[in-house]
Write a structure and sequence with these properties.
Alpha-D-Glucose-1,6-Bisphosphate, Chain A, domain 4; seven-stranded antiparallel sheet
Length: 147
């Protein structure tokens, strides 16, 4: 499944980049996140509760940041698994100045397997979009509260 989109954030590019790499902020912003901790340079372990079309459960996985070009861009690799299935994704996040804020563009691919894949492409796609929207809404709230 292909995922892509843009968000305009009211923070400058440097502040946006820095906060996108703060595990405390990310843990509070990821929908369903039970735990997110740094386990290495640009690598995080996570536990997330996910509910999708009648399937729900705990997923354990990792996030790895690669090809970091602060404050311009980075790639993110995500993988997780749980009783309901597996998730693996890769995406490029690009940050561009936009007025007094930043335009964040994301472009990636996600594969799901196991029982959760039976939910269907449309359901998975709409759930992914909803989770991304919730992430950025909470991200703006968290970064505003931090300053």
């Amino acid at each position: 499944m292909k995922i892509f989109g843009t968000f305009t954030l009211p923070f400058n590019r440097e502040k946006t980049y820095q906060n996108l790499h703060d595990p405390a902020i990310l843990g509070r912003c990821l929908p369903g996140c039970d735990a997110l901790e740094r386990v290495g340079e640009d690598e995080y372990a996570m536990t997330i509760k996910l509910a999708l079309a009648g399937f729900s459960g705990l997923f354990a996985g990792k996030i790895k940041v690669t090809e970091a070009r602060p404050p311009h861009s980075f790639k993110m690799l995500v993988e997780g698994s749980g009783k309901a299935g597996t998730l693996k994704g890769e995406g490029l996040i690009t940050l561009s100045p936009s007025g007094t804020g930043t335009e964040l563009a994301y472009d990636g691919d996600v594969q799901v397997g196991g029982a959760i894949a039976a939910a269907g492409q449309r359901t998975i796609d709409s759930t992914a979009k909803m989770m991304i929207r919730k992430f950025f809404d909470k991200f703006m709230e968290e970064v505003n509260a931090k300053t």
